[in-house]
Amino acid sequence: MGKVAVRVAVVCGVAVAVTAAVVVHCKMKKSGKWEKAMEIVKEFEEKCATPISKLRQVADAMLVEMHAGLASEGGSKLKMLISYVGNLPTGNEKGLFYALDLGGTNFRVLRLHLGGKGRGIVSKQFEEVSIPRSLMTGTSDALFDFIVAELAKFVAQEGMDFELRPGRQRELGFTFSFPVLQSSISSGTLVRWTKGFSIEETVGRDVVAELTKAMEKQGLNMRVSAFVNDPVGTLAGGRFTNNDVVAAVILGTGSNAAYVERAHAIPKWHGLPLKSGEMVINTEWGNFKSSHLPLTEYDHELDAETLHPGEQIYEKVTSGMYLGEIVRKVLRRMAEEAAFFGDTVPPKLKVPFILGTPIISAMHQDTSPDLKVVANRLKDILEISNTSLKMRKVIVELCNIVATRGARLSAAGILSILKKMGRDTMREGEKQRTVIAMDGGLYEHYTEYRNCLENTLNELVGKEVSETVVLELANDGSGIGAAILAACHSKYLETDE
């Protein structure tokens, strides 16, 4: 056995014991398949390249679309939706408020007790619920009935401390993380579904009316006081505790951003003059598309297979729903054209979305000497056990290529918002602080992605400006912000004063 091991080591150039992985690796070397696999990786890396010059082009192209979207409805791929949030929280809000945060494959229900001036959030309780996939493409009634049933269960668990005063309704902030055309702070029609949802009958309907109908049907005594998108909610939640928060970015299942715009810079706003002179704008930047985006054949293939081809292109290269799927597509091609995993393509590798982004995050961040986490994930998820250390290193590199491109493109998006607000340069004699509230599992849990994004942003704005720009994690920001905005727009405000 010792002699064989030495012979194999000489052939492969690595001192390892005889295993199925080594046999596969050696066969690949002899047949030229390894070179073919490396060609595929190299070509992919080159097409995903994001030099600073390209990122500046992306930011400038997005800025042009932002201006166009503010000028007129339908004037841009970026909807630049008016949120009807003109007055942001002050920190003095008080009372018991609820939030429903629907943003992806899960939703959260939340209860917040606000203590008023100087007391902030006194208590917070929440529950997270997974949405069955069948409801994501079923009927509008089925989806909202399910959501309200879970909301009612949450309320039913309350004790005496949460009883309402006679004649009062519970008030809810509803975070709905899909493109909506709002007509007031508590109403808005669905423009289109994203993130795997596709219920055609809901499109064009008032989403708050759909939720209210389900609440009335189930006898839940609650009203929607504020209807917001997740970055708008996150911005409001951040502003509640920090007056320097002027924007919010979501990097989770999907990707989006909101920021505070000057009212006079919104030509399409025809409403009453705003006391604050400001309006929060929901950019819907996930739908940004530009020839400057570094797209590959795998991205085009992924886009064609989604429920909304040609839409949400920026989101499809930056957000958590898609990063793992891009890695899977590259690995499948390597398996098919370069026998990367042996003579047959592993069946599990053919299953769309089997490699979730949490899996590639775990593999990318594997610091063990033998990349044990990578080996275990491949075995548990894809049922692939015959991998050498060299092969596992290639897989980590693929995760790195995809995450790096996504993080750097996200940084370019943030630069475009800083440019729009005039905060990408230093004004003489002014040291303004710009805080951007960040929320979403991708940003929170994928450390390599987060670090890359922050380093890239610093590189884009330069040392002096980077010292004034802070990215601040706002955990549960969109739900907390929605509940706080419900407090800001409570129908009982005057009676409580």
Automatic annotation (TrEMBL):
A single BP term in Gene Ontology: glucose metabolic process
Gene Ontology molecular function terms on file: ATP binding; D-glucose binding; fructokinase activity; glucokinase activity
Domain of life of the source: Eukaryota
Membrane topology: Single-pass membrane protein
UniProt keyword annotations, A-Z: ATP-binding, Glycolysis, Kinase, Membrane, Mitochondrion, Mitochondrion outer membrane, Nucleotide-binding, Transferase
Documented EC number(s): 2.7.1.-
Localization in the cell: Mitochondrion outer membrane
InterPro entries membership: ATPase_NBD (IPR043129), Hexokinase (IPR001312), Hexokinase_BS (IPR019807), Hexokinase_C (IPR022673), Hexokinase_N (IPR022672)
Top-level enzyme category: transferase
A Pfam family the protein falls into: Hexokinase_1
Start and end residues of each Hexokinase C-terminal domain: 247-488
Keyword Membrane: yes
Annotated pathway: Carbohydrate degradation; glycolysis; D-glyceraldehyde 3-phosphate and glycerone phosphate from D-glucose: step 1/4; Carbohydrate metabolism; hexose metabolism
Chief place where the protein resides: mitochondrion
SUPFAM superfamilies: Actin-like ATPase domain
Domain Hexokinase N-terminal: 41-238
Protein name: Phosphotransferase
